[in-house]
Write a structure and sequence with these properties.
This protein has 2 domains: 5-42, Orthogonal Bundle (GTP Cyclohydrolase I, Chain A, domain 1); 56-185, GTP Cyclohydrolase I, domain 2 (2-Layer Sandwich), CATH 3.30.1130. With 188 residues, the protein is an alpha+beta fold. α1 (5-18) crosses α2 (31-42) and α3 packs across α4 (119-134). Helices cover 36% and strands 25% of the residues. It has helices at 5-18, 31-42, 104-113, 119-134, 148-151, 174-185; strands at 58-59, 67-78, 84-94, 98-99, 116-117, 138-147, 162-169. The strands form 2 sheets. It has a 5-stranded mixed β-sheet, sandwiched between helices. β2 and β3 form a beta hairpin. The chain has 6 helices and 7 strands, in the order ααββββαβαβαβα.
Amino acid sequence: MAVDSGRIEAAVAEILAAIGEDATRPGLVATPKRVAEAYAEFFAGVGADPARLLADSVPSDRLGELVLLRDIEFRSICEHHLLPFVGVAHVAYVPGDRIVGLGRLPKVVETVAARPQLQEQLTEQIADAIDTGLSPLGVLVVVDAVHGCVTARGPRQIGSSTVTMASRGTLSDPVQRAGVLSLIGGHS
């Protein structure tokens, strides 16, 4: 779904006027267009089905116990304040009878992150997409992010981050989950 750039530009010009700025002054004249272009990128995942990115999974007769991709960088926009939050996602799955190219996992994260989002929802939606798209035996997603609404306003906690986790199937078992969490935390 494409964003309506004209409406975004008009809305940004109105916000600038509402804060007492002159949207026609040289430093701001192109701001509405730049914001519209940025929003087209930030919200490219609206209406997209991330599970479809896993449709090209392939059967595998020799499956490992675990696939873990650590430190998938992402950025998203908090739906409460429309401020950015950035971080990393760690995505693990225990293959069923299908596997997918590793490059597909960051694409799932990117697609889910590219919409107005809450970190808790982001984590769950990534896990759901992998569970739906691959039918693995287990899924674990851990997201660690820094939020603009926490660092730049309100509490102004520059050094804090938020960690969320979602698990499915065999990786919902506390012992199995602890093993994966040690792998996530055991690298530099």
